[in-house]
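Tokens for chain A. Residues wanted.
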């Protein structure tokens, strides 16, 4: 059984990922927060180089999935030093620990590395230009990983929601109960992605690189000839936050009044890309796994 170490294992994606992988892989969960599941767990702060080195060395994983991050986008804007420490330094520490242990690394990154000025879906080769501290700190994490560990996959995803974290869907449903009029921005377009679906996509990638006959694994170390690098993966299709909120309310059969506003009117600390749809074709070609539409995924979540 291949051994996978997951950082951020108690987070929104981490919990779904552990559930998805726990039958076919031996898991070690790592987080600063408390353990949520029954797999083997180590409490560890990724900003502490010694701690993460020791944990990875002891666990001897074939692959590390690095999902731990500071994900509060406005919080990052207000505390850039903390964002840099967790998202950039933390990623570098995880990468160097992987290199030392001979493990491959899957880094979960974000659509926020782009400025949102493109009119069509972003490809992996498109120029990055983050417009927020969060996006910049995650991009610096990508750069540190590329530099430190050859065996890396950088998976950029977008607009996550899931059962085990604070997210837009739950916020809209809660607000619809208490507020008469909901105001939602209509000038940002992206692809909402269900963490349960993203967990399946990560599994498809892991299966592809650890189980296919051409990528045989020996001992506890992988011998890959996979095309490492950047991949985009999100639920398919695109929508504005406003239309997304309307669909959430329709599926939940909640008749709340909802009005569109601009990002300027909302006036949040961090800027967000106006268009951050990701082109998934490279990921589909490599793994054979196609993510379903955001509407289908949302329907299942709301139900
Ligand atoms: N959420 C999105 O919309 C979105 C979109 C695109 C990409 N992503 C990326 O996807 C990944 C997973 O996101 P998510 O929404 O599942 O995040 P999340 O729910 O915030 O989970 C991240 C986990 O990392 C932990 N963590 C924070 N600082 C740590 C540290 N110093 N050492 C160890 N663990 C630490 C967090 O603990 P605390 O909760 O105690 O801080 C949390 O349990 C992240 O890398 C994120 O950048 C997210």
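Reply:
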């Amino acid at each position: 059984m291949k051994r996978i170490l997951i950082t951020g294992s108690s987070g929104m994606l981490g919990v779904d990922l552990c559930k998805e992988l726990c039958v076919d892989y031996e898991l070690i969960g790592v987080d600063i927060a408390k353990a949520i599941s029954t797999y083997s767990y180590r409490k560890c702060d990724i900003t502490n180089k010694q701690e993460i080195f020791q944990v990875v060395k002891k666990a001897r994983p074939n692959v590390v999935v690095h999902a731990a991050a500071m994900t509060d986008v406005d919080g990052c804007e207000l505390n850039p030093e903390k964002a840099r420490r967790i998202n950039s330094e933390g990623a570098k520490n995880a990468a160097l620990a992987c290199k030392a242990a001979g493990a491959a690394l899957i880094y979960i990154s974000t659509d926020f590395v782009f400025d949102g000025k493109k009119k069509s879906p972003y490809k992996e080769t498109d120029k990055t230009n983050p417009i927020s501290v969060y996006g910049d700190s995650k991009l610096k994490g990508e750069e540190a990983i590329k530099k430190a560990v050859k065996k890396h996959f950088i998976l950029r995803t977008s607009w996550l929601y899931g059962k085990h974290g604070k997210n837009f869907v739950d916020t809209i449903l809660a607000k619809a109960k208490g507020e008469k009029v909901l105001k939602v921005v209509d000038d940002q377009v992206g692809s909402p992605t269900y963490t349960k679906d993203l967990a399946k996509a990560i599994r498809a990638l892991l299966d592809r690189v650890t189980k296919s006959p051409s990528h045989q694994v020996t001992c506890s170390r992988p011998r890959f000839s996979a095309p490492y690098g950047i991949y985009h993966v999100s639920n398919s299709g695109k929508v504005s936050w406003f239309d997304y909120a309307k669909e959430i309310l329709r599926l939940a059969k909640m008749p709340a009044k909802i009005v569109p506003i601009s990002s300027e009117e909302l006036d949040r600390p961090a800027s967000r890309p106006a268009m951050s749809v990701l082109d998934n074709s490279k990921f589909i070609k490599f793994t054979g796994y196609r993510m379903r539409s955001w509407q289908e995924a949302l329907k299942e979540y709301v139900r």
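Residues 8, 10-14, 31-33, 45-47, 67-71, 86, 90, 108, 110, 138, 157-160, 165 surround NAP (CB under 6 Å). The CA atoms of residues 207 and 287 lie 9 Å apart.
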